[in-house]
Write a structure and sequence with these properties.
heterodimer; A: alpha+beta; Aldehyde Oxidoreductase, domain 4; Aldehyde Oxidoreductase, domain 3; 3 domains; 6-stranded mixed β-sheet; 19 helices; 37 strands; globular; B: alpha+beta; Ubiquitin-like (UB roll); DNA polymerase, domain 1; 2 domains; 5-stranded mixed β-sheet; 5 helices
């Protein structure tokens, strides 16, 4: 037999570059040559530029707006205010959380840098000139900055538009600045567990307000074609179809006359999920002027007005036995949502999936409750590289486990191993009602500890502590352990929707006669490499080389409806749709093959890239041959063509997990924290492209470093944003970023067609507690239980000072 | 506002233009010349997405007025690849070692690395890290960028020695 003419199954599989291959990315040729097409690269004939005049106050009544001087600037076409939008009923827009948000400030402003007037001009310089000349007179009002005082009896009324509406989108509001109370679990049982416990620990764990800050800011180009009545919006949209539906609902333009296109997106990390006033204003301006209007925010606008994340103040409480067996968990959260509730969560989950807060542990009883409040800060509450509020939950729990370990005098890793859900308990239903699909936590944790030689690290730490006490060093060694379980892939339509849109996703495949293909999905890549990885899934499923499969996303006129890319949902949901659509293609191809091979459908079997006659593999038809046959053979009972579409409604979420260990050295005299080592073991189920997975982990860990060590969108007592630019907002450079060590185990999801769970957000979920635990651990022997993030030099130095360690 | 004539050599081509005195070089490149490879990421000269090569130095083109570049020699990402479309070793290496994800920082990053390797053909990892510290990336965590630059340097170096 000629081996070259008849390559083995393995050789043929390798050529496909399907799942498991570290296939190089198809996106890179254009990006490395500066040929990407991002929204600010779009240039249309006659295009105008929009720019906002923004509020200088955090809370103030607008006494008057004088546009005269601004309108006199050469090149200025129009200036929109709330008064102009009111007749169109567009001065408010619905938020993803069932609230409304002012598109342009209506009578008063509620946060600094709120959008007040939209200037439209012939170029961006004229627009910027005019913004400075829009005269807005304010009457200052008392400001609410601290969420802990938002519900004081005498707290000022922030939202006058809903002051008398005590029934909110998520139940009864019990104060004019209250948004909702949401709870899960067994309160009575948990209280009982606390009362009867041998040991109880309690701590306020705050996760400060941060911002996803992708390198590219948010923006759009809106173009109304008055001849055919079609509105096209190119924009930085992580969920283009949802944007189309929302745009149709609020503008009353029929949905088929709206086309949303997400071009290349320069990073999203949750920032680009929401609908922002700039999009509405650009669309209105284009409808009014009849020419395209571009709006692209600058970095300061990005950091101060579109989509903050976190701002969760979590009081955690754990009950345990003296031997370290956890008997109960309670958590109350005060959630600062800013001036409008614009959180990006599935409708039924106003606090996202915070109830994943029992984490990786077999905790018999638990309760969590979340109070959302309004303050004079920017709206948002997006999932910054995480599934809805999972980062917050994991941070609270993983810090609390360390607090408990300290109380018990146990090693934090040992305490975790003692309480893990065991392999044979899966599928496991948590005390708060989630059904975990699969896991083997002990193996992952033990592999992590072995790889870093955990025992040796602890011995080294003991020596370091002795040397510090003896005055031989001014540096303290900290070891941070974190073990997280994520809940991603939202989600089952039965309980997951956004604005009533079920959170399924989709893939449509067309096989061309010559055996190449195009696949279109309802998701949109922002750097994840979908064009590469989804082709790999298909290559394995349908046996055509990945390089012959084009993946296209982001154009609502061509892509099937889907809910977009965020919450690590692309692989769990759209990846499943892709596999299922591929299987439909294969099912039809099987019938074609059987016809051509003159056997019964059941007498052919699939082998990598072909159907062969069972027991006679010499007789086969490759997928490429079958593709051609689909278009040129009249096959009885079969329609011509080879296409399929799948809308995948996931039966469950997926639950990726990981074991992270971080070693830091803290200089007590400067507060500088040096990351000596960071080891990350991730289990994301089936691995589609190991190279891309590693890249995702590197990036997510770097964002975790940023959050743990420096990021904060802080406000002063007047509601002024302190540090809303990259002058102050911390983005690590290559110098501060350590080398990452990555590792993995593979525990496929049993309910996912290819067993994949999603990985993009895991490193942020696990990375932040690992860093924070390491810093806290450095001081643990001095009695420190918890110190708040971010662990920047000043805060760490203050911690050392409070403990009497500074010189 | 009155306009001023400027001339410069960009990617080997003589370019003439007329700009307001306040026009930033990045806007002149992107909007007047359609060179959209260099990007705008921040307003404070921190992110480096707009990095170009001006008279043999890496500069952030959002911090320079177009008139200041009058008479200058400029290289942008658009001319890093060969005239025949062959990718530069850096571009190949970024692809090979997954040194990019969303691609937004990539043009500035490669343009910076291109200059770095001319100034220091054999950089250590820490020299690479310091050398690109004016260019922010939110996706990759830098590790694969450092690797891509190191491998490209190794590939370019023997070629340079042979040429000498």
């Amino acid at each position: 037999m000629n081996d070259q003419a008849n390559p083995s199954s393995a050789e043929r599989a390798a050529k496909l570059q399907g799942m498991g291959s570290s296939r190089k990315r198809v996106e890179d040729a254009r990006f490395t040559q500066g040929k990407g097409n991002y929204v600010d690269d779009i240039k249309l004939p006659g295009m105008l530029f929009g720019d906002f005049a923004r509020s200088s106050h955090a809370h103030a009544r607008i006494v008057s707006i004088n546009k005269e001087a601004a309108l006199a600037v050469p090149g200025v076409i129009a200036i929109l205010t709330a008064e102009d939008l009111k007749p169109l009923n567009l001065h408010y827009m619905p938020t993803l959380a069932g609230d409304v948000q002012a598109v342009l400030a209506d009578e008063k402003v509620l946060f600094q840098n709120q959008e007040v007037a939209f200037v439209v001009a012939e170029d961006r310089y004229a627009a910027a000139d005019a913004v400075e000349l829009v005269e807005i007179e304010y009457e200052a009002l008392p400001v609410v900055v601290d969420p802990f005082t938002a519900m004081d009896a005498d707290a000022p009324v922030l939202r006058e538009d809903i002051a008398d509406k005590m029934e909110g989108a998520h139940g009864t509001r019990n104060h004019h600045n209250h948004i909702f109370y949401w709870q899960a679990g067994d309160k009575e049982g948990t209280d009982k567990a606390m009362a009867e416990a041998e040991v109880v620990v309690e701590e306020l764990i705050s996760y400060p307000r941060v911002h996803p800050s992708p390198l590219e800011t948010c923006g759009c180009v809106a173009s109304m074609d008055k001849v055919n009545g079609k509105l096209t919006i190119w924009g930085t949209f992580q969920a283009p179809h949802a944007v189309r539906t929302v745009a149709s609902l609020i503008t009353t333009i029929p949905e088929h006359n709206i086309r949303i296109i997400s071009p290349d997106i320069g990073g999203g990390f949750g920032n680009k999920v929401g609908v922002y006033p700039g999009y509405i204003c650009a669309a209105v301006a284009s409808i009014v002027t009849g020419v395209p209007v571009k709006w692209v925010e600058d970095k300061i606008e990005n950091l101060t007005s579109t989509a903050f994340a976190r701002d969760y103040h979590m009081t955690g409480k754990i009950a345990a036995t003296n031997e370290g067996k956890i008997t109960g968990l309670a958590c109350h959260v005060l959630a600062d949502h800013g001036a409008f509730d614009a959180c990006a969560d599935p409708t039924q989950f106003p606090a996202g999936f915070f109830s994943i807060c029992t984490g990786s542990y077999d905790i018999p009883v638990a309760h969590c409750g979340v109070d959302g409040v309004y303050t004079n800060k920017a709206p948002g509450g997006v999932a910054y590289r995480c599934s809805f509020r999972v980062t917050e939950a994991a941070y609270m729990l993983e810090r609390m486990i360390d607090v408990l370990a300290l109380k018990l005098g146990m090693d934090p890793a040992e305490l975790r191993l003692k309480n893990f859900i065991t392999k044979d308990q899966f599928p496991y239903t948590s005390a708060l009602g989630w059904e975990y699909d699969s896991g083997d936590y002990h193996t992952a944790m033990e592999q992590a500890m072995k790889t870093v030689d955990y025992e040796k690290l602890r011995k080294e730490q003991a020596a370091n502590r002795a040397a510090f006490t003896a005055g031989e060093t001014r540096s303290l060694m900290g070891i941070g352990v974190a073990f997280f379980t994520e809940i991603v892939g939202a989600g089952p339509v039965k309980n997951c929707d956004i604005l009533g849109l079920g959170m399924f996703d989709s893939c449509e495949i067309r096989i061309h006669p010559t055996g190449s293909a195009i696949a279109r999905l309802g998701t949109i890549s922002q750097g994840q490499g979908h064009a590469t990885t989804f082709a790999q899934i298909l290559a394995t499923e349908i046996g055509l080389p990945a390089e012959d499969i084009t993946v296209e996303e982001g154009d609502t006129d061509t892509a099937p409806y889907g809910l977009g890319t965020y919450g690590s949902r692309s692989t769990p949901v759209a990846g499943a749709a892709t596999a299922m659509a591929g299987r439909k293609i294969r099912a039809k191809a099987q019938m074609i093959a059987a016809y051509l091979l003159e056997v019964h459908d059941d007498d052919v079997e699939w082998d990598v890239d072909r159907f062969q006659v069972k027991g006679n593999p010499e007789k086969f038809k490759t997928m490429k041959e079958l593709a051609f046959a689909a278009y040129n053979q009249a096959i009885p009972g079969l329609e011509p063509g080879l296409e399929a579409v799948s809308y995948y409604d996931p039966p469950n979420m997926t639950y990726p997990y990981g074991a992270y260990i971080c070693v830091v050295d803290v200089d007590v005299d400067t507060g500088v924290v040096d990351t000596r080592r960071f080891y990350a073991l991730d289990d994301c189920g089936t691995r589609i492209n190991p190279m891309i997975i590693e890249g995702q982990v590197h990036g997510g860990l770097t964002e975790a470093l940023a959050i743990a060590m420096g990021q904060e969108i802080a406000y002063d007592e007047m509601g002024n944003v302190k540090g809303g630019s990259l002058m102050d907002y911390y983005i690590p450079t290559a110098v501060e970023t350590p080398e990452w060590e990555t590792d993995f185990t593979v525990t496929p999801s049993p309910h996912h067609p290819i067993g994949a769970k999603g990985v993009g957000e895991s490193p942020n979920v696990g990375g932040v507690p690992a860093f924070s635990n390491a810093v806290n651990n450095a001081f643990a022997h001095f009695g420190l239980t918890h110190t708040q993030m971010p662990h920047d030099h000043w805060r760490v130095w203050k911690t050392a000072e409070k403990l009497g360690l500074t010189g | 506002m009155s306009k001023i004539k400027v001339e410069m050599t960009i990617n080997g081509d003589k370019i003439e233009g007329s700009v307001e005195p306040r026009t930033l070089l990045i806007h002149f490149l992107r909007e007047d010349l359609n060179l959209t490879g260099p990007h705008i990421g921040c307003d404070t000269s921190h992110c480096g997405a707009c990095t170009i090569d001006l008279n043999g130095k890496s500069i952030k083109s959002c911090t320079v007025f177009a008139v200041q570049a009058n008479g200058a020699e400029i290289t942008t990402i658009e001319s890093i690849a060969g005239a025949d479309g062959t990718l530069h070793a850096l571009q190949e290496s970024f692809r090979e070692h997954h040194g990019l994800q969303c691609g937004f920082c990539t043009p500035g990053m490669i343009t910076r690395a291109h200059r770095l390797l001319q100034d220091n053909p054999n950089p250590t990892d820490s020299e690479i890290r310091y050398g690109i510290s004016g260019n922010l990336c939110r996706c990759t965590g830098y590790q694969n960028i450092v690797k891509a630059i190191r491998v490209a340097a190794e590939q370019l170096n023997p070629a340079q020695e042979a040429a000498e």
